[in-house]
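Rotation project, supervised by the postdoc (A.L.). Task for the rotation student: set up a whole-complex structure prediction and record inputs and outputs verbatim in this book. Inputs entered:
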Amino acid sequence: MAYIVLDTKKCKSCYLCLDACPKGLIKKSSETGMTGNFVVEFDDKNGECLGCKCCALTCPDLAITEVYK
Amino acid sequence: MQQVFKLPDCIKKDAKFTFCPGCDHGVALRLLGDAIDECGVREDTIAALCVGCSVFLYDFYDIDCLECPHGRATAEATGIKRARPDKFVFTYQGDGDFAAIGFAESIYTATRGEKVTSICINNTTYGMTGGQMGPTTLLGQVTTTTPFGRSAELNGYPMKIAEHIALCDGTAFSARVSLDSVANIIKAKQAIKKACEVQIKGLGFGFVEILSSCPTNWKMTPQEAHRHIREKMIPVFPLGVFKDVTKG
Ligand SMILES: Cc1ncc(C[n+]2csc(CCOP(=O)(O)OP(=O)(O)O)c2C)c(N)n1
Ligand code: SF4
Ligand SMILES: [Mg+2]
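Outputs recorded:
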């Protein structure tokens, strides 16, 4: 099962990763981050992550630090 | 299970980018860091930096950096490389820095075929100073100094940087890439690496112009900014490789 490591302390809530994930596994969470907006969360209960790195390649803030496949 | 993505060693472990939310400078820095890591030259790298949002590279990269007067990064890179030809030397500059105040330095560095690599972030504005018109501002684009939109008659046309650099005999590689989508980010990475490799092989000047968002000064969301790159910038600034001496 592929997965990503997300460091929400670096998330600036740009939400570019929401569109990048082909499976729609990244969502807005209910926690606020450094910009005062909701940070994202990785929600993959059904083990759908492809390990494609699309989210990590898109993130401008190094918040997705590792991807495993 | 295998690790398929990690952050570049070039970037300090505790680095937190200070760019605005959604700003593509962060993506460009990560790609350049990956390219330097993959070329295996991190310990031998010296950066000549600029004035503009690009300059913050020095806060995030674990390499030797020199801050240059506005626009003069390629001139300083020339000096560093000639004094220390064993080093990998690059510049990371904005459109204003590289193609306005520093255009004479930039074009002559390419013309002389200096064995350095330059990355130019084209966000069609002076980002750091609050969004004035720059050399690549699109016709019709509203900025603080073109409140009615850039007019060809009054302000001239946007400059095509990568094509100009490709015309110089000393240029080994010149390309324009974009960071608006995953597919284009992957292509951007390949071009940046190529621009680094031509320096390492001693072939001449390596250059990449990167179409990059400035959501803050464009007054757009990060998503709208990427759509703007696709719909408004790429038709004016076509993507592609304009010169590559390694290809016949
Ligand atoms: C000699 C000099 N002139 C003008 C300035 C003011 N200034 C600071 S950044 C900048 C433009 C930066 O634009 P660009 O190179 O496109 O970088 P960006 O911030 O968009 O990444 C200017 C004109 C300065 N610092 N020094
Ligand atoms: S002003 Fe523009 S270029 Fe500078 S950090 Fe903000 S979004 Fe990026
Ligand atoms: Mg700029």
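Student's summary: The pocket of magnesium ion (ligand 3) is lined by residues B 52, 94-96, 123, 125-127, 134 (CB under 6 Å).
Supervisor addendum: The beta strands of chain B are 3-6, 45-49, 64-67, 88-94, 117-122, 171-178, 205-211, 240-244.
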